[in-house]
Design brief:
The chain is mostly helical. It has helices spanning 18-45, 67-87, 105-118, 122-131, 141-152, 170-173, and strands at residues 49-54, 92-99, 163-166. It has a single domain (13-168), classed as 3-Layer(aba) Sandwich (Rossmann fold), CATH 3.40.50. It has 6 helices and 3 strands, in the order αβαβαααβα. The protein has a 3-stranded parallel sheet, with helices on both faces. The longest helix has 28 residues, at 18-45. The protein is globular. The two termini are 26 Å apart. This is SDR family oxidoreductase.
Length: 174
C-alpha cells in the first residue's frame, strides 16, 4: 500500500508558491513512484502480488483551492493505470483507492483552513460537505482498510487498473 501524502496548502492557484506546488507533488506523486519502484522487483520475484495506491476523490473531482493536491492525486490515477498495464503480465495487480472525506484530524485541519479562507465557520463548511455526500457521513480508516484487504485478497484477483472511490457517494453529487 502506497500511502505517501500531504494535504498541501489551501490557496487559490495564483497564490500558490512554486515551492509549495513542488513539495506537494513530490510527496504525493513522487512518493508513490519511489515506493512502487522498490516494490516491483520484490513482487516480480515473489511471482505476483498487488499494489494499492492511495489517491483521493480529489483525483476524480478536483478541489477548489487545492490545485497541487488534486493534480498529484489525478497523477496517481494515471500512474496506477500505467503500472497495471505494465505489470499485469507479471501477475501484479495495481489499483488506486480514492477516499472521500476521511474522518479524523487531518481532514478537520484542512476544512478549518478552508473555512477560514472563505470566511465561514468550520461547522457551516462541514454541514455543506455532508450535503454533497448522499450517505451524509465521512469515511473511516476501517472502511478504507476493508477495501484494501479485499483488493489484495484472492477475492480481488481480477481487479486491476481501477481507481475506486470510497466516499459515501460523494462522487455522484460532486
Amino acid at each position: 500500500v502506497n500511502n505517501a501524502g500531504i494535504s498541501g496548502p489551501t490557496l487559490p492557484a495564483e497564490e500558490l508558491s512554486l515551492e509549495d506546488w513542488q513539495r506537494t507533488i513530490a510527496v504525493n506523486l513522487d512518493g508513490h513512484f519511489l515506493c512502487a519502484r522498490r516494490a516491483i522487483p520484490l513482487l516480480r520475484d515473489a511471482g505476483g502480488g498487488s499494489i494499492v495506491n492511495m489517491s483521493s476523490i480529489g483525483g476524480r473531482l478536483g478541489y477548489a483551492k487545492r490545485a497541487a493536491y488534486a493534480a498529484a492525486k489525478w497523477g496517481i490515477v494515471g500512474f496506477t493505470k500505467t503500472l497495471s498495464i505494465e505489470l499485469g503480465p507479471l501477475g501484479i495487480r495495481v489499483n488506486a483507492i480514492q477516499p472521500g472525506m476521511v474522518e479524523g484530524p487531518r481532514v478537520e485541519r484542512v476544512m478549518r483552513e478552508k473555512a477560514e479562507s472563505i470566511g465561514i465557520s468550520y461547522e457551516t463548511l462541514q454541514d455543506r460537505a455532508f450535503q454533497r455526500i448522499s450517505m451524509r457521513r465521512g469515511v473511516t480508516a476501517d472502511d478504507i482498510a476493508a477495501l484494501i484487504l479485499f483488493l489484495v485478497s484472492d477475492s480481488g484477483r481480477n481487479i486491476s487498473g481501477q481507481a475506486i472511490p470510497i466516499d459515501g457517494d460523494q462522487t455522484s453529487l460532486g
